[in-house]
Write a structure and sequence with these properties.
The chain is an alpha+beta fold. The protein has six helices and 19 strands. A seven-stranded mixed beta sheet has the order 3-12-13-15-16-6-7, with helices on both faces. It has a four-stranded mixed beta sheet with strand order 4-5-8-9. The longest helix is centred in the last third of the chain and has 20 residues. It is globular and about 60 Å long.
Amino acid sequence: INQGSCICIKMLIFDTTNGCKRCYIMEKGKLNRITDVEGVLVGHKTICSDSHQTGVTFIRTAEDVFHQKLACGCSILNGFGKTTGLPQIMELGTLESYICLTNTLNVGVVQQALVDIMVKENEDLTSVNVVVGECNDGYLNAIRDCVVTKEDVYEAYRNCKKNFELGSVGAGRGMSCFEMSGGIGTSSRIFEIDGDTYTLGVLVLSNFGLREQYLLDNVEGNQLPLEQEKGSIMMIIATDAPLSDRQLHRVCNRMPVGLALTGSHMGNGSGDIAIAFSTANRFGNEEIHTLKQINDNKINIVFDAAIESCKEAVHLSLIENEEVTGQSGHVRNCLNQVKIS
């Protein structure tokens, strides 16, 4: 690496101060996972048979999230999606439930199972806004059979932990990214603002892109190309930095930058949705809430952390993976199996 030309396979931030082009790599979290944010846990339930390649991924956002709600923002970057719970987040700027991810046609059963969990944990609950995101895994999974059950959601909930699996697991089991095995990816970054250290992590459910669009590696393969890009991606962003729901919405709006750096074109049939929450602001039943938020003039480093984490999370969903064979003999190779030219 030098100041004249920079070639690096890792995530880079460019600083052009005083006309000098420099690059640096932001520090990663201990596990390089969204769970580097304290209180966040992730669990999977994977369904794997000849025709059924699907599952559930469960994100435990924080303890007692129903009574101590989190500041939350979201952005519908391209609305070809079936996510539940976004209208109330847009209206109130808070998250009061855990988050689940699954396939398109099983959103309903997962939503009900998540309601059951929230009801069991909170005896005073009579209404709750649960959040369930999805991508369509119909290439590898016989999606019309709707094989995900409520018990699968409960098992993913019980499996939640800090050091969770990546790739074709949980909701990511049947997903395709750049016509390779996609699914669950994650990454995290650590940064400082005025001497205080914060963590931001991203979890993605990657299911988008054509082979020739992938920018991080020049890959070739013998699979027939798709006629057009029809995929989707869910991006869940967690941080312990004190951000308002407005600022979290701004972070979500930067996610297309991270996607573009991987090669995403956000096609017509792509549901691209970002949800961001902060554990620094909790909202209970107090009549007046005290909100902490960073100065907007300091927020660029948060944008950088989110963009880097998003980009690497997509890449890790590909390299931390395996070949998957699904319905009708459909196959997705993993990145490590295809030719890199």
